[in-house]
Amino acid sequence: MCLLRNLEGLSLDSNELHGELPSCLANLRKLDVLELQSNMLTGTLDALFQLDGMTVTPTYAQLRLDNNDFSGTIPEAIQYLNDLTVLTLHGNPQLTGSLNALCDGRAMMEITADCANVDCSCCTCY
């Protein structure tokens, strides 16, 4: 999968996937939509991003990562995703951090999180 450099969308939701995200996902620079919700994925979200200054690749528009078992701190890189319109992180009770940088008036359509552990003034909380 990580050799598919022109891949723009990947939908693997509800497939009972296990394990951590492969680090090569960040090399898929054209990946715009990533739907991995409702699996049993673990580890951190760091493998999703390459941060060079304030430029993040891939430049996701939709990240649906809810209802897995991700843990750790939400990567700072998320705030630099200028095209992001959908971010679903609820159902990952071990994720911590802040998403308030996304509450800056940009055209977000949907942001969800477990607000007991995630600080977010514009999220739909679970």
Can you put this structure into words, describing what you see?
The protein is an all-beta fold. It has one domain: Leucine-rich repeat, LRR (right-handed beta-alpha superhelix). Helix content is 0%, strand content 34%. It contains no helices and 13 strands. It has a 6-stranded parallel beta sheet with strand order 1-3-7-9-11-13, with no helix packed on it. Strand 5 and strand 6 form a beta hairpin. The chain is globular, with a radius of gyration of 13 Å. It starts with 8 loop residues before the first strand and ends with a strand. The relative contact order is 0.16. The model has no long low-confidence stretch (mean pLDDT 93).
Keywords:
126 residues; mainly beta; Leucine-rich repeat, LRR (right-handed beta-alpha superhelix); six-stranded parallel sheet; five-stranded parallel sheet; globular
Write the layout of secondary structure elements.
Layout: E1 9-11, E2 18-20, E3 33-35, E4 40-43, E5 50-52, E6 55-57, E7 62-64, E8 69-73, E9 86-88, E10 94-98, E11 110-113, E12 118-119, E13 124-125
Parallel strand pairs: 1-3, 2-4, 3-7, 4-8, 7-9, 8-10, 9-11, 10-12, 11-13
Antiparallel strand pairs: 5-6
